[in-house]
Amino acid sequence: MPQQGEEKRRAFVTFLAGDGDYIKGVIGLSKSLRLVDSRYKLIVSVLPDVPRRHTDLLLAHGCNVRSIQPVLPPPGVCAFAWPRYAINYSKLRMWEFEDYDQLLYLDADMMVFENIDELFDLSPPGFLTAVKDCFCDWSHTPQFTLGYCQQCPGRVPWNFALGEPPKPYFNAGMFVFEPSSKTFGRMMQALAENHPTPFAEQDFLNLFFQDAFRPVPNAYNLEMAMLWRHPENVNLDKTKVIHYCAAGSKPWAYTGEGANMDREDVKELVRKWWGVYNTPLIIFKLDIDVKYTITIPCTCGKK
Ligand SMILES: O=c1ccn([C@@H]2O[C@H](COP(=O)(O)OP(=O)(O)O[C@H]3O[C@H](CO)[C@H](O)[C@H](O)[C@H]3O)[C@@H](O)[C@H]2O)c(=O)[nH]1
Ligand SMILES: O[C@H]1[C@H](O)[C@@H](O)[C@H](O)[C@@H](O)[C@H]1O
């Protein structure tokens, strides 16, 4: 904990697994944070299956790379919405980064279009700060059958015959939290008593922090599907972070195929992502003080 008057040690953090294209997501994200003049650096937590050529690339882009060991899913029958979610429990390792007081996690399929440094201050101690999810695609839940979504609780009222309404639930693509080995230890204990569920570590985190979730506006994590699920809750001009999570919308794999992918607003957001990704940035900042000059012999034959 920082002493009174001391600055909090803060950073952005993301997560990278495997040798696939998510590396492009991380590079895009890191450039976007620099282009909006973020004050804090980006840590990339990498699993052992990330190849060396990818970690070298991240270092060259000025990222701070940290190796982490996987956290395995809890025992039980796999019930994940997508098999790839099994590795996402490893995100919990970031609670062990105790050399920071506060971290702001962002998925690699997110891009920051406006400075969000203020989120650190908007997150009170002891809370996890995030954006409310949208339930409209969750075909496995009673709220889906009912048509109930926390993004528009007035549209279809909750049916109490189904029990208590669902607790506020956040999307785990973006959240601010306080690392703590003690909390990590408690998480591992709770995880051992948990079982695999459709949204993997996201469901787990929602359970673990159910009494400590602090919601912030959708502008800090606009899930792509909000464009057609809840257009009344979207103001793209004021949106700071886009989450390319709808099926078919990952910019590096975008083909325009699939439901809603031919929308003009989707195409524009994908274009914006590529614009940032392709921005040439000076990637090395030498922090040594150069006090001497070197004479390089001329080899071109001219005097
Ligand atoms: O092969 C992979 C798969 C995932 N990731 C990392 O894990 C993150 C989450 O994976 P997805 O982007 O595939 O997840 P979605 O956006 O579809 O899913 C949402 O649900 C997930 C449930 O596990 C997580 O909570 C995730 O943070 C949340 O945004 C990625 O952004 C990336 O940072 C990789 O590095 N490599
Ligand atoms: O919670 C889920 C999950 O994060 C999915 O990956 C995303 O595509 C859905 O829109 C969201 O509701």
TrEMBL record:
<keyword id="KW-0808">Transferase</keyword>
<protein>
    <recommendedName>
        <fullName>Hexosyltransferase</fullName>
        <ecNumber>2.4.1.-</ecNumber>
    </recommendedName>
</protein>
<keyword id="KW-0328">Glycosyltransferase</keyword>
<dbReference type="InterPro" id="IPR029044">
    <property type="entry name" value="Nucleotide-diphossugar_trans"/>
</dbReference>
<dbReference type="InterPro" id="IPR002495">
    <property type="entry name" value="Glyco_trans_8"/>
</dbReference>
<comment type="similarity">
    <text>Belongs to the glycosyltransferase 8 family.</text>
</comment>
<keyword id="KW-0464">Manganese</keyword>
<dbReference type="Pfam" id="PF01501">
    <property type="entry name" value="Glyco_transf_8"/>
</dbReference>
<dbReference type="InterPro" id="IPR050587">
    <property type="entry name" value="GNT1/Glycosyltrans_8"/>
</dbReference>
<dbReference type="GO" id="GO:0016757">
    <property type="term" value="F:glycosyltransferase activity"/>
</dbReference>
